[in-house]
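pasting for ref
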Amino acid sequence: MTSVRLATPSDLPACAAIINDYIDATPWLPRTVSREELEGIFTPDLLESRVVLVAENDNAIAGYASLDKEAGFLHALYLRPESRRQGVGKALLNATKAARPGGFDLTVFELNANACRFYVREGLIEVPEGRKTDTEEGIPTLLMRWTGEAA
């Protein structure tokens, strides 16, 4: 059973490990910052500017989402590999939708076909003019949008 809650400072090292492990396990994604530099982003200060949600299964963090508090931009949604296709991503995305009922944007690497399919299946649409090819990683990203709840 997956539960989603707001992250606390003690959850942040697990979130950093999830994204670091994803980068290390993804052959097409180059590492542009060290593990240590990325871990340095996940400090309590992050919770000042972001809504960080964690999904738990059996009291272990299975994934997280990081949403900008001001703009409502979803900066990250990452899962532990063993948590994929278990409803964890859907639970995090649904919690994000609940936090931003007016809608939000996110970017996704174009090569991440599984994530692209997931977002489309969950009601997000691609914004064609938002495609970027000049990314730090050298991999194009797509801009996806959830337009919000129907009026």
